[in-house]
Every structure is written in C-alpha cells, then in structure tokens.
C-alpha cells in the first residue's frame, strides 16, 4: 500500500532534464512559479500548458505515472475550482438553478486557477522525480550560501534536510513492517469507525517513534565517532557543474516570460 | 491446518517503474502438524513467502489455501481476519512491535483484538510470561524498560497469546545469545509437539533446520527449488552449494570423520547428539571386531 506513494521520489533516467544541474532546475522552478502568474487570458494559459507538456516530454517520465502521483492533489484542485465557480460574481449569468448562480467570470477564473495549480504541481513533481534528493539539498546549500553572512546556518539546514530525506524510505519500510506485525496481531487499520481507526494508529505510531529516536541517536553517535564537525572546510564528493545547457534552460524560461507578457491582456 | 501454495507469484510495487518480482510459481504443501523449515540465502524470497502464509500479502498470481480459506489476488481483506487469528507470525526482531504501557497489556493486545475476553487474555499473558522464563514482575513494567532478550520474549508471548494453530517464525532468534537461542528454539519445538501446531520456520541456520524441522524447502531467486526431508536435502551437498547454502556443522564433521576413517556411518547425523551417539556405536563395533 505504501509502495504506491510516489511523491518526492526519484526515478533514475538519462533525459535532458535529468542531466541538468540541480541548481538550474531549482532556479527554474522558482522562477516558473512567478512566471505562471503572468498568464491571465486563454492564449497565455494555453502557452503555459503547451510549455508544461514540452517539459514532460523532455523528462521522458511516463505520463500515466505522473498523473498517478497527482491524484492526492486533484481533490485540492477540484475544491478551489468549485470555490471560484460559485463565489465569483462577475460577468453574465450562464447558469441559474434556485439559489445557485454561476457567472461567466466564475467559470473562467475556476478554469484558470485549476490550470495554474496543475502546471505548478507537475513542474515541481518533475523536479523531484528527475533530481536525486541529495543533489537538491546540495543545490539548495550552494544557492543559500550567500546568506551565511547573516549567520544563517546554511550547512546545518542542508544537512538536516538531507538526513530527513534520507530517512523517508527507511521510515516507510519501518511503518510497513510494524503495520504488518500489528495486523498479524489482529489490529485493523482499514475498517471500523473513525474512533476505532484512531485507536489502531497508536500501536503503529509508538514503535515508530521509538525506533526513529533510536536511529537518530545511533546516527549522531556514528557521526561523532567519525569526527563530523560541521561545514567548515568541508570538501564535496559530488560537484555540481553549471553547463551551457543550464543557462539555456533559464534563458528559455525568460523568453517564455516575455512571450506571456506580450500576449497577456 | 494444511497450507498449500499453488503457483504463487508475487511482484512488489506492481505497475510502477519500481516493480520487482519476488516470487515465481512457488508450489509448497505444508501438511497439518508438520514442522516446515524454509531456507535460502538473503534475498531469495523467504520472507515474502512468509507474509503470504498470513495473507498479509496476496499473491499477484496463483492461490494459497490456508485451512479452508483460499487467498487469491481479488479476495477482499475482510475474510482474511479469520486466517490471521489462526496463523501467528513472529517477525524478525519482533520486539519492534511492542507499544503498550505494560507488558501485560501488550501481550493481551493480540487476543483481545480477536474477541477474547479480558480475563481470559490476562490469564494467557500470566501463563505465557512464566512459560517464556520471565519473572512475574515484568508484567507491570513498561516493555521499553526491559533488556533486548526480555523484550524478544515478551513479543513472542504476544503472538503465542492468540493461541494460533499455525506458528510462523521468521528468524526468531536472530541477535540473541547462544543460550537464549537454544531456549527459545526448544520452547517452540515443545509447543509444536504439545499443542500439535503446524510450524513454519524461516531461517539462515542450517543447524536449526536440521535439528527441528521434519520438512525443508529451499528458496532460491524467488523460486522454491527443492523440498523434502532433512535427510534428503542434506545428502546432496553439491546442490546445496549451487544455492549458496552449507551443510549443518554435525554433517560437516561427520563427513570429515568418514573421510579419515574411510568408512561410512549408516545415517546422516542431523544433530551433534545424534552424531555422538552414532560415532560411539560405530567405534564400539570396530573394537569388537
């Protein structure tokens, strides 16, 4: 059951997107979030969708797999769509039934917001699906490096992030194992009333916490034993290398922004 | 309770890029009341088979009959609770599943989930703590205050408290000291005989398999490649080597002795005691001649 979760998982591959520098991808996604907000009419949104599909093609990730990973977000998208649909009161009325009134502008806004959501979620999923968590943290560390001047513990933050990312699969496995052990003892987490299910979670969470704390302690000891003393003077095993293609992808994004500004109303 | 695996195949994370086949067409019949060992090197699919015995995993293809319940891919989980009550699994490092405030409550968790009354569950817990050689005081202690070996015993008690008809053991003694190992394995054997349990032992230890099991199955690369009595299995050393397995110590020793004396003992000695006995008799006969 847990093995179906794909959120935040890396799929090895050798596409153009896979080979980009993690920093480039990170900057790209952050800029893209801003660029998405330029779009405000049908043509600009169409361009955005087209662009997203182009990126999906380039990442060579199977579409159905991406859609599968989007399932949890779909509810949120539908919810915001309905919110805009019913609560925007502008333009002509296109549908009326008792107290329900749907306005033209509401429909338009609903669709636009959904597209915005969709495009953002897909692009960020592509980032995590094509980049190893380790390179994402490395990239984040180098990008945040200037903030060290203001005493921000950048290295420690990055280390915390990579440790937590590293332990997600371990904890997932652990959860699966303990869940099975308790199921074998007759605990039932999938049926029964809300209260029963809540109660069934306790035998899962307590062993999980206990083992997580034990692991944390073991890790701390292991790091200390091997003389870990923070980021000062530390060299890297994996070097991030900025190539021409990384500059190209950022430039492409800027061109997209210019096109969108040109076509926006 | 008879258990029959028919053409069981299993794939983890089916229909994703992470799909991984773990079992291929496994056929295995475990008759009621037998002691079945499943051996194989790491990653051979032993643990996957084990999780099928309790319907924690459902086969992607094929079927498993556990008593009179048939488990298939499309079977709904509801009917499987009956199976879980009758099949107790002691997982690897079972102490990881302890969670309750006191040892007593933790042992009572299993039986009470299956509708056993509180008094009955309590009675079983008290009996089992004694049976597993733990002092009475532990009942009121937190399971997290116990030593590793004691935690293991409490966790085992938690499974036994469900009064299973089938006991499935996944390396139950991994990480214990030699004396603790022997005590626990002997206890399982004693329960097996006394209560007429069907026991399935998944193990790396050829010695345990040879000593306790009356049937052995070998798993290799997700397939069940060989099944038979310990005598049959351990008489073919070359084949064992193919599956990266070894002979039990006693048989190794027997082979060396046979080589030195250039004579053969009449039987394959599965335990040290048996070997000592056979050797003594053999030497006596030699002397008489």
TrEMBL record, chain A:
PANTHER family: PROTEIN ABCI12, CHLOROPLASTIC (PTHR33514). Belongs to the energy-coupling factor EcfT family. It comes from the Bacteria. This is Energy-coupling factor transporter transmembrane protein EcfT. It is found in: Cell membrane. Forms a stable energy-coupling factor (ECF) transporter complex composed of 2 membrane-embedded substrate-binding proteins (S component), 2 ATP-binding proteins (A component) and 2 transmembrane proteins (T component). GO terms for molecular function: transmembrane transporter activity. It is a multi-pass membrane protein. GO terms for cellular component: plasma membrane. Its main location: membrane. HAMAP family: EcfT. CDD domains: EcfT (cd16914). InterPro entries: ABC/ECF_trnsptr_transmembrane, EcfT. The keyword Cell membrane applies. Transmembrane (T) component of an energy-coupling factor (ECF) ABC-transporter complex. Unlike classic ABC transporters this ECF transporter provides the energy necessary to transport a number of different substrates. Coiled coil: none annotated. The chain crosses the membrane at residues 26-56, 63-87, 107-129, 242-263. Pfam families: CbiQ. Keywords: Cell membrane, Membrane, Transmembrane, Transmembrane helix, Transport.
From TrEMBL, chain B:
Its EC number is 7.-.-.-. Belongs to the ABC transporter superfamily. Energy-coupling factor EcfA family. It is a peripheral membrane protein. Residues 3-246 form the ABC transporter domain. Forms a stable energy-coupling factor (ECF) transporter complex composed of 2 membrane-embedded substrate-binding proteins (S component), 2 ATP-binding proteins (A component) and 2 transmembrane proteins (T component). Gene3D superfamilies: P-loop containing nucleotide triphosphate hydrolases. GO terms for cellular component: ATP-binding cassette (ABC) transporter complex. GO terms for molecular function: ATP binding; ATP hydrolysis activity; ATPase-coupled transmembrane transporter activity; cobalt ion transmembrane transporter activity. The lineage of its organism: Bacteria, Bacillati, Bacillota, Bacilli, Bacillales. Transmembrane segments: none annotated. It comes from the Bacteria. ATP-binding (A) component of a common energy-coupling factor (ECF) ABC-transporter complex. It is found in: Cell membrane. Keywords: ATP-binding, Cell membrane, Membrane, Nucleotide-binding, Translocase, Transport. This is Energy-coupling factor transporter ATP-binding protein EcfA2. It is an enzyme of class 7 (translocase). PANTHER family: ENERGY-COUPLING FACTOR TRANSPORTER ATP-BINDING PROTEIN ECFA2, HEAVY METAL TRANSPORTER. Its main location: membrane. SMART domains: AAA. InterPro entries: AAA+_ATPase, ABC_transporter-like_ATP-bd, ABC_transporter-like_CS, ABC_transpr_CbiO/EcfA_su, ECF_ABC_transporter_ATP-bd, EcfA2, P-loop_NTPase.
């Amino acid at each position: 059951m847990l093995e179906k979760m794909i959120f935040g998982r890396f799929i090895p591959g050798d596409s153009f997107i896979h080979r980009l520098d993690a920093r480039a991808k990170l900057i790209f996604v952050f800029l893209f979030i801003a660029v998405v907000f330029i779009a405000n009419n049908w043509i600009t949104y169409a361009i955005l969708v087209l662009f997203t599909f182009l990126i999906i093609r380039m990442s060579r990730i199977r579409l159905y797999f991406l859609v599968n990973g989007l399932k949890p977000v779909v509810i949120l998208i539908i919810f915001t769509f309905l919110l805009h649909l019913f609560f925007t009161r502008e333009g002509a009325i296109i549908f009326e039934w008792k107290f329900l009134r749907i306005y033209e502008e509401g429909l338009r806004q609903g669709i636009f917001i959904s597209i915005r959501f969709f495009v953002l979620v897909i692009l960020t999923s592509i980032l995590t699906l094509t980049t190893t968590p380790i390179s994402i943290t490395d990239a984040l560390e180098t990008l945040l490096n200037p903030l060290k001047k203001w005493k921000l513990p950048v290295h420690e933050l990055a280390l915390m992030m990579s440790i937590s990312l590293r332990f997600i699969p371990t904890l997932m496995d652990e959860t699966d194992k303990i869940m099975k052990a308790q199921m074998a003892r007759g605990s039932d987490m999938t049926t029964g009333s809300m209260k029963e299910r809540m109660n069934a979670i306790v035998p899962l969470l307590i062993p999980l916490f206990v083992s997580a704390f034990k692991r944390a302690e073991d890790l701390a000891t292991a790091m200390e034993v091997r003389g870990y003393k923070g980021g000062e003077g530390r060299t890297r095993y994996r070097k991030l290398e900025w190539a021409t293609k990384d500059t190209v992808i950022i430039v492409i994004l800027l061109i997209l922004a210019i096109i969108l500004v040109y076509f926006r109303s | 309770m008879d258990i029959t695996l028919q053409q069981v195949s299993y794939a983890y994370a089916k229909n994703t890029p992470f799909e991984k086949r773990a079992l291929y067409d496994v056929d295995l019949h475990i008759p009621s009341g037998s002691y079945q060992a499943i051996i194989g090197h790491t990653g051979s699919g032993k643990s996957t088979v084990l999780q099928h015995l309790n319907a924690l995993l459902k086969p992607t293809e094929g079927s498993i009959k556990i008593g009179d319940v048939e488990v298939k891919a499309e079977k709904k989980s509801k009917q499987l609770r009956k199976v879980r009550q009758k099949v107790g699994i002691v997982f690897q490092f079972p102490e990881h599943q302890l969670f309750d405030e006191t040892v007593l409550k933790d042992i009572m968790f299993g039986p009470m989930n299956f509708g056993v009354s509180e008094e009955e569950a309590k009675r079983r817990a008290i009996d089992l703590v004694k049976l597993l050689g733990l002092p009475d005081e532990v009942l009121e202690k937190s399971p997290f205050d116990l030593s590793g070996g004691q935690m293991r015993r409490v966790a085992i008690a938690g499974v036994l408290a469900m009064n299973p008809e089938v006991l499935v053991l996944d390396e139950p003694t991994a990480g214990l000291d030699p004396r603790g190992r022997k005590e626990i394995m002997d206890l399982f054997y004693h329960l097996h005989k006394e209560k007429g349990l069907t026991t399935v032992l998944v193990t790396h230890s050829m010695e345990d398999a040879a000593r306790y099991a009356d049937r052995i199955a070998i798993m290799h690369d997700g397939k069940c490649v060989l099944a038979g009595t310990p005598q049959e299995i351990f008489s073919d050393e070359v084949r064992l080597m193919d599956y990266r397995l070894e002979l039990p110590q006693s048989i190794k020793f027997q082979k060396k002795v046979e080589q030195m004396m250039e004579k053969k003992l009449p039987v394959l000695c599965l335990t040290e005691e048996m070997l000592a006995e056979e050797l003594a008799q053999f030497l006596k006969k030699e002397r008489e001649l």
